Every structure is written in structure tokens, then in C-alpha cells.
């Protein structure tokens, strides 16, 4: 099939690469000239394992090319994917400016029957507006259909997710469009959910909101576990074995969920509910809990180290919003660093992929960018782990003890082995469980006790 993918961000670039790899003829379109030049030469604008190899292979064999010209991409294709960003606006709603601008250009350049497929995450009713805008801008009598085909790609696992998706959701009112989508996805071995436009749009938001709800739920169970003397990791295992619930997305975290999707999509769904005069109370709490997690974790740090952190140095492992990505958008780690800096501490930070992005946000004021994880903990009073990178689990505790000045470890991801950390002479404070950083009454141990322990 001849496919045009408009927007070569995460979703567009991965989609274009995988569709091309399946033998389709794909043109990727982006207004950003520098980006197009980079991608064409095999330099990926995003960090995604294996993507460069697929792109280069398909550019070479002629299945994939890139252009900055929407008219060129649209006129030469039968299927047009809209994959541009829908960032959060000031009201919490999804900003549809880019989607509507693309719809207009697609309309202006229609030169025969095409299907226009929205992959961008858009609120219920958007595809009907897209249809309207295309119609208003197309020549009279030009035939087309719109389709909603949301993506469910996780950053860091996007290619795997695209190839082995759990389901393909296709919303459309046209039998002709549905057949074309079936043909396009016939190589994917996944259930095909065909539905109306609005249900397809809602499936995407409901999925992300439910996953975010799982995280906020386990984070609240974690709060309760700490107070009641239970262990949230054990609880998550026990609960997750129930097939109706599942173990995924039950990892409690002191920094909350982040990224370019969950925070924005939950807020947008909440905005949709208020627009429909419905107060989605559960969702409001999901967002509130997510923000509170960070303040509660900061409280652990100040309870242990005191309210005035000037003169203290804190080592930070993890800056990205999750492991296996360089993305720091809505990263809990970045928010934590902002708070810690506000309390006056100096920071030594390290992340395997997100250093450059973080430098752009903070510059060098109060922050040293370390060369590796051990460089980040040299002479620090305390160590904070904010992102669940696999490598951090391998931290050599004996070496860490020698390198650090203090003996405090705050593990916001429950990444380290509690027994090993405690028996190596550290005071360990994590998430949703009592550790040697707590008094018998369940309070965080005070600065005085810690100082004596040094
Ligand atoms: C998400 C959805 O998973 C994907 O389907 C959608 O299309 C885009 O949004 P992504 O943003 O890449 O993908 O991240 P994901 O892996 O879902 O993690 C989101 C956040 O939740 C991260 O900050 C992660 O650290 C956090 N998380 C995840 C937890 O805190 N606990 C968990 O148990 C799982």
C-alpha cells in the first residue's frame, strides 16, 4: 500500500518504519527540515532501540523516504496517517492546532479517494471535526473517509509494541475504509476491534487512564503499607496474581507516573468529562495522588536530612521519566530535582540516556552532570534513585559505601534489595515498606539519629 505518515515524532517515525518494513511504500512528512535531513541520514531524533537500523534498511531498499512537503506526501498515497502532537493546553485539554492544520492541508491536496487515519491521541469527536475540515478544503466531489486508529506504543519498546500489539483498534463508519485497514494490518497477529469513531477515540483515553489509575492506586496502597507495617511489593505480587487484575503497572513509585502520555491524557480525559458536565471524581484523585507522591517523597528526604539542605550534596540516579528512554517530559525525577534544589542542596546527577535533555532544562547551577553512576555518588551525603534503569540495580554497595560521604539512600523505585542495602551499613528509605530508615512507630528516622550513625 502507498502510505503517507504526517509527523515524524515517536508515533509517526516508528509507524512509518514498521509499515515500510512490512513491504509498504511509505513517505514520512515533517515540517522540520533539520529533522528530515537527520532521519534520512540515519540519525534518529528519538532514542528507540533498533529504530535506526529499520529506517536505514528501508530507506536503502526504497520502501521509505522522507520529505518536508505535505502536498507531495498526500498526493502520492492512498492512506494518510496523522501523527502530529496533541500537547496539553492551559485548560488541561488536548491542543488540536497541529491536527487541524494537517487536516486542512490534506483536504487541499486530495487528488482521489484516500483514507485519512488519525493516530494522534485526540478527544472524542475530533475525527468528525477532521472530516469537516478536510471536506471544507477539498475540491467539490473529492471522495475520502476518516478513520480513528489509536496507538498504544510505549517509549523504549515502541517497535516491539507496534509489531506485537495486543489489539488493533479501528473506528470508522465506512466499509471501504475498514477493508483497507484490514488489508494494511493483515500481517499483524492481533484482535481487530472495529467500532465507531467516538468509541475508538475513547478506547485510547480509557486505556491510559486505567493504567494511570492502577499506578495511583498502588501508590496509595503503598502509603497505607508504610503506616500499617506491610510491604507494597509483596502486596502487588499477591494482588497481581489474580488474572482479573494482573501484575503490570502495580509498581509503586515515590515520583509518580510521568512521560508525554499519561499526565496529558488523564488531564485531557478529565477535561472531556467536565466539558460533558460530568465530574469524573476518580480521575481527579488519580492526578492528585500522582502529584502528592512527589511531595511525600520530598518530605521523607527533609525529615531525614532536615529542612535546610544547603551545604548538603545529593547524588541522583535517574532523570528520564522511566527506563530505556532519554525522554524527560513530565519526569518525576526532574520535578524532584527542582524541589531538592529549592531546599538548597547541591546535586550530582546521572542517567544513561537523559543527560543532554536535562542539561537543557537546568543548566549547571547547583548541578554536576556525572560521567557514570559511581561518579554521581562521590562524596554525597545521600543518594536518590528516581528512574527504574536496570543498571542501577547492579550498584556495587561496597564501592558505593566507600564513595559516599553519608549513608542515606532514598529509593523512589524500590529498585535495590532492602536486606543487602541495610546490611551494607546504609540507612535505606524506599516506597510503601518499613525499612531501617523508620522508627518503630513508623516515622522516618531523625537527622540526629542519622548523624550519630555516620
Ligand atoms: C504509555 C502507554 O503505556 C502507551 O500504551 C501509550 O500509548 C503511551 O503512554 P509510555 O508513556 O511510553 O507509554 O510509558 P509507560 O511505560 O506506560 O510508563 C508510564 C509511566 O508510569 C512511567 O513514568 C513509569 O515509570 C510509570 N510506571 C509504570 C509506574 O510508576 N509503575 C508501574 O508499575 C508502571
UniProtKB/TrEMBL annotation:
SMART domains: UDPG_MGDP_dh_C (SM00984)
Gene Ontology terms for molecular function: NAD binding; UDP-glucose 6-dehydrogenase activity
Keyword rRNA processing in record: no
UDP-glucose/GDP-mannose dehydrogenase C-terminal domain span: 315-418
Entry binding sites for substrate: 152-155, 204, 249-254, 258, 322
UniProt-annotated binding residues for NAD(+): 30, 35, 86, 121, 155, 264, 329
Catalytic activity: UDP-alpha-D-glucose + 2 NAD(+) + H2O = UDP-alpha-D-glucuronate + 2 NADH + 3 H(+)
Superkingdom of the source species: Bacteria
InterPro entries recorded: 6-PGluconate_DH-like_C_sf (IPR008927), NAD(P)-bd_dom_sf (IPR036291), UDP-Glc/GDP-Man (IPR017476), UDP-Glc/GDP-Man_DH_C (IPR014027), UDP-Glc/GDP-Man_DH_C_sf (IPR036220), UDP-Glc/GDP-Man_DH_dimer (IPR014026), UDP-Glc/GDP-Man_DH_N (IPR001732), UDPglc_DH_bac (IPR028357)
Any one biological process term the GO annotation gives: UDP-glucuronate biosynthetic process
Active-site residues annotated for this sequence: 261 (nucleophile)
Record key words, sorted: NAD, Oxidoreductase
Its EC number(s): 1.1.1.22
Pathway note: Nucleotide-sugar biosynthesis; UDP-alpha-D-glucuronate biosynthesis; UDP-alpha-D-glucuronate from UDP-alpha-D-glucose: step 1/1
UniProt family annotation: Belongs to the UDP-glucose/GDP-mannose dehydrogenase family.
Protein name (database record): UDP-glucose 6-dehydrogenase
Organism in which the protein naturally occurs: candidate division WWE3 bacterium GW2011_GWC2_44_9
Organismal lineage: Bacteria, Katanobacteria
Amino acid at each position: 500500500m502507498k502510505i503517507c505518515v504526517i509527523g515524524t515524532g515517536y508515533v509517526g517515525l516508528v509507524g512509518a518504519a514498521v509499515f515500510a518494513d512490512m513491504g509498504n511504500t511509505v513517505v514520512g512528512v515533517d515540517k522540520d527540515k533539520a529533522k528530515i535531513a537527520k532521519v534520512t541520514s540515519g540519525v534518529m531524533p528519538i532514542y528507540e532501540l533498533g529504530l535506526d537500523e529499520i529506517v536505514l534498511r528501508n530507506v536503502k531498499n526504497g520502501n521509505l523516504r522522507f520529505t518536508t512537503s505535505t502536498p507531495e506526501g498526500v498526493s502520492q498515497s492512498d492512506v494518510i496517517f496523522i501523527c502530529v502532537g496533541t500537547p496539553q493546553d492551559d485548560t488541561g485539554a488536548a491542543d488540536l492546532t497541529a491536527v487541524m492544520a494537517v487536516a486542512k492541508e490534506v483536504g487541499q491536496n486530495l487528488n482521489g479517494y484516500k483514507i485519512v487515519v488519525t493516530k494522534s491521541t485526540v478527544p472524542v469527536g475530533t475525527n468528525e471535526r477532521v472530516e469537516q475540515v478536510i471536506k471544507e478544503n477539498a475540491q467539490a466531489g473529492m471522495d475520502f473517509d476518516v478513520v480513528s486508529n489509536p496507538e498504544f506504543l510505549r517509549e523504549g519498546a515502541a517497535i516491539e509494541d507496534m509489531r506485537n500489539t495486543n489489539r488493533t483498534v479501528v473506528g470508522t463508519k465506512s466499509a471501504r475504509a475498514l477493508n483497507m485497514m484490514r488489508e494494511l494490518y493483515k500481517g499483524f497477529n492481533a484482535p481487530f476491534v472495529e467500532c465507531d469513531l467516538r468509541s475508538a477515540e475513547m478506547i485510547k483515553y480509557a486505556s491510559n487512564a486505567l493504567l494511570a489509575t492502577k499506578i495511583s492506586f498502588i501508590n496509595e496502597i503503598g502509603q497505607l503499607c508504610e503506616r500499617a507495617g506491610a510491604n507494597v511489593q509483596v502486596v502487588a505480587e499477591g494482588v497481581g496474581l489474580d488474572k482479573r487484575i494482573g501484575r503490570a503497572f502495580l509498581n509503586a513509585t515515590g515520583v509518580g507516573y510521568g512521560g508525554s502520555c499519561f499526565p496529558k491524557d488523564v488531564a485531557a480525559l478529565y477535561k472531556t468529562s467536565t466539558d460533558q458536565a460530568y465530574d469524573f471524581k476518580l480521575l481527579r484523585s488519580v492526578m492528585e495522588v500522582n502529584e502528592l507522591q512527589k511531595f511525600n517523597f520530598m518530605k521523607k528526604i527533609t525529615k531525614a536530612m532536615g529542612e535546610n539542605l544547603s551545604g548538603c550534596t545529593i547524588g541522583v540516579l535517574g532523570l528520564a521519566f522511566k527506563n530505556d528512554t532519554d525522554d524527560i517530559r513530565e519526569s518525576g525525577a526532574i520535578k524532584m530535582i527542582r524541589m531538592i534544589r529549592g531546599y538548597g542542596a547541591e546535586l550530582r546527577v546521572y542517567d544513561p540516556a537523559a543527560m543532554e535533555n536535562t542539561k537543557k532544562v537546568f543548566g549547571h547551577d547547583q548541578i554536576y552532570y556525572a560521567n557514570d553512576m559511581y561518579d554521581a555518588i562521590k562524596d554525597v551525603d545521600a543518594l536518590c534513585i528516581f528512574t527504574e534503569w536496570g543498571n542501577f540495580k547492579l550498584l556495587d554497595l561496597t564501592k558505593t559505601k566507600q564513595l559516599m560521604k553519608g549513608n542515606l539512600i532514598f529509593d523512589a523505585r524500590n529498585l535495590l534489595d532492602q536486606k543487602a542495602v541495610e546490611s551494607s551499613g546504609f540507612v535505606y528509605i524506599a516506597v510503601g515498606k518499613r525499612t531501617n530508615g523508620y522508627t518503630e512507630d513508623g516515622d522516618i528516622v531523625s537527622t540526629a539519629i542519622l548523624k550519630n550513625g555516620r
